[in-house]
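We both want to read discrete structure tokens more fluently, so let's practise on a single case. Would you write everything just below, so we can both look at the same thing?
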Amino acid sequence: MNAAALHPRDALFEASERAPTLPVCDHYSGVPERMRKSLDLQAERGPVFDVTLDCEDGAPVGGELEHAALVGELVMSAANRNGRVGARVHPVDHPAFERELDVLVKAAGARLAYLMVPKVADLGQAKRAIAAVDDACSRHGVTRALPVHALIETHGGLRDVFAIAALPRIESLSFGLMDFVSAHRGAIPQAGMSAGGQFEHPLVLRAKLEISAACHAAGKVPSHCVVTEFRRRSLLQEAATRACRQLGYLRMWSIHPDQITPIIEAFAPTAAETDLATEILMAAQAAGWAPISHRDTLHDRASYRYFWDVLARAHRTGQPLPAEVREAFFGDDRA
């Protein structure tokens, strides 16, 4: 094949280096009315954000299986137009975990984008969760490898985070801020859960960096925690920008519809970054991915990989791209 015709993912990355690409915003919803509204909003805007239907915090005590059945119906409904709807289940040691998982996989295993497992206590529990997901898939004839996401919000989970991220079935790890701070029994002040304080306290910042580093080392997607001050757009925008630009996160949780757009905007490349990536990658492809000089600067495969990630993120966040770029790189919607 002509090298110039190769797609960047094929020309620049070995198969083992191809990390999953996910929307930059993961929107959580657990109340039935809000779950339906979230699906409607995603259908309207397109797959620029995921929707996670919440069985952990959304289900009433004693009604876990009924809530899981509703989530399964919504995942399989016509409202799920983009196939980017996942579900959060209860922790592995919760009495309803296996039965809830069975209900979800039976009803919607074919279309669930992923399953989020919270409060993963250690590597062994992560393995148990994955085995339970795979067993449920086997029982119900789901032949695909259903992606598993996990929440790191315990001391043990953080201790084992590099090993957890390296598990082949893990696609993404998220940081659970509130439970992590609470696990310190008051040693971290309440400000550690605020929009600004969570970037200042050393123990919280260390946890965020460990999760991000572990994900990047294993080729997985690090997902940043919530900002609870959902009405204050400026605080959210600043937190999302710091998560993306300073801590290396590729994704962030939303807990209110008003948070979705600011997160997408913060994680999107600037117009100048997108334009530069476009110029360099188009020239590189024309050169068969050999080294080039651009604005008196040498570029080769190392910088091409960086600029491809920039351009792919621009595509995932719905940024306008020239027609020739869309045709050359995203005609099959690869990002």
About this structure: The longest strand covers residues 49-54. The chain has 14 helices and ten strands.
